[in-house]
Amino acid sequence: MPHRIRTEENTVQIIIRKSERTLTLTDRGVSLFTCRIALGSEPTGAKRMQGDGRTPEGSYFICLVKEEGKYGRSMGLSYPNPADAHLALLEGLIDQRTFD
């Protein structure tokens, strides 16, 4: 199942297909651009904690763009989102202070 990242206007989407390792940019359902992407060392399944090698699944926004990073061009996501952080708190992966 593809993972979607939406803008506030909800017209532009970034769709990640982890199994195909592709990113597609769409606007109002029209594909504008598709490219190959690199993912974590264990891309299957949702990211649970730092160092697990997985790629986050869910709704995030792009909060950082690096033109020339260690692995070339990259984008940072707003991970964890509030739901991810709440689950980590419930599972004891983070404490209340970190959650706040």
From the structure above, extract its key features:
two-stranded antiparallel ribbon; four-stranded antiparallel beta sheet; 100 residues; 6 strands; mainly beta; 2 helices; 37% strand; single chain
3D shape: globular
Largest beta-sheet characterization: 4 strands, antiparallel
Low-confidence stretches: none
Strand order of the biggest β-sheet: 1-2-3-4
Helix-strand category: mainly beta
Q: Average pLDDT value?
A: 84
Number of helices: 2
Rg (C-alpha, Å): 15 Å
Note the gap between the termini.
32 Å
Strand runs, count: 6
Please write the string of helix (H) and strand (E) elements: EEEEEEHH
The helix content is 10-25%
Q: How large is the share of residues in beta strands?
A: 35-45%
Please describe the topology of this protein:
Layout: E1 3-6, E2 12-17, E3 22-27, E4 30-36, E5 62-69, E6 72-77, H1 82-90, H2 96-99
Antiparallel strand pairs: 1-2, 2-3, 3-4, 5-6
Would you give an account of this structure?
The chain contains 2 helices and 6 strands, in the order ββββββαα. The chain is mostly beta strands and 100 residues long. It is globular, with a radius of gyration of 15 Å. The termini are far apart. The model has no long low-confidence stretch (mean pLDDT 84).
